[in-house]
Amino acid sequence: MILRDHEFRSDAYIIITSDDTEKFLNISSPIESIPAKELENVIINYYVNSKTIPIKIYDFVKMTNTKSKVAVAPFVEIKRPFAKSQENYTFFVSKMAVFDNFKLIGYLNYNETRGLLWTLNKIKSEIYPIVNKNIKVSLELTHSTCKITAKDFKDKVLFKIEIVSEVNLGEKEKGQITQKNLEELKKEFIKSISKDINETLKKSFDLKADILHLQDFYYLQHKKQPKFDKDKISVSITVKTFVRRFGMLKN
Questions:
Q1: pLDDT digit of tens for each residue in the chain (251 aa)?
Q2: Is the same domain home to 84 and 117?
Q3: Number of domains, the chain
Q4: Which has fewest Cβ within 10 Å: 104, 113, 142, 219?
Q5: Which range of residues forms the domain containing residue 92?
Q6: Where is the signal peptide (predicted)?
Q7: Cα dist. 238→26, 118, 193 in Å?
Q8: Could you give phi then psi for residue 147, rounded to 5 degrees?
Q9: Strand 70-79 to 90-100 pairing
Q10: Based on the domain organization, do 119 and 188 belong to the same domain?
């Protein structure tokens, strides 16, 4: 009905919540007088920080009408900014709801959501703190691309996830920027990306749902659908990263 009826807008955002609907829709904000507009701003801000994905009705249906049949939507709660604060309630995106063929089956935390963003090629920006014995910095993601290929090998399907990312040096607390330290930063950053994707993959197997839409990539290349089984799927992750800028300081 939502898709067929001309009075519905398919470009409206889908939000999942467990809060009382009337209370949810009557949040007062010092910035926006319309709660729906404030909610939209919150979703976009969380997206910029790679903690959620704005999902509209047609996006949700499009994701469900794939071989994987898995769709996600932001789970939003209302709470005070601080535990003992007397300020007004505000919107808070706490996780992502996961649906398998329109049925709610689980949730993704921030790291698992970020892993999904990497593979969907939807990650916009993010700050990655990198700490080791030689240096402590924060890297700001500025650009990334992701390519996924699949091939059959014996009785398994091998998926190769290739990511190319560009970052800037956003903050440096200790250590010197030498060529050796720069290579260490890249290695730690690559580990962080791989960890995010592996966490999402693990949640996929736990929920028995193809959250990363691997079956869709396989179908595009082989015109058949593989069985989503932990014992039948193998995933390799390759990341190349480039540190482009170091800011206005020489060191």
A1: 777 888 888 888 999 999 888 888 887 776 777 888 888 889 999 998 889 999 999 999 999 999 999 999 999 998 876 666 666 778 899 999 999 999 999 999 999 999 999 999 998 788 888 887 777 888 889 889 999 999 988 888 999 999 999 998 888 877 677 788 788 888 889 999 999 999 999 999 999 999 999 999 999 898 888 888 888 899 999 999 998 887 756 65
A2: no
A3: 2
A4: 104
A5: 1-108
A6: none
A7: 46, 12, 10
A8: -130, 130
A9: antiparallel
A10: yes
The two tokens of residue 153 are 């090998």
215 and 146 in a common domain: yes
Token code pair at residue 69: 């049949």
State whether 59 and 155 are in the same domain. no
In angstroms, how far is the first alpha carbon of the chain from the final one? 60
CA-nearest of 83, 69, 74, 93 to 16 is 74
CB count within 10 Å of CB 68 equals 23
Q: Please name the residue ranges forming H helices in the chain.
A: 21-24, 35-48, 57-64, 110-120, 179-207, 214-222
Total residue length of the chain = 251
Q: Residue 89 gets which letter from DSSP?
A: P
- Residue identified by tokens 């700050």 is 127
68 conformational bin, left if phi > 0, alpha if psi -120 to 50, beta if neither: alpha
How far apart are alpha carbons 152 and 35 in whole angstroms?
A: 50
Residue labelled with tokens 């014992």: 231
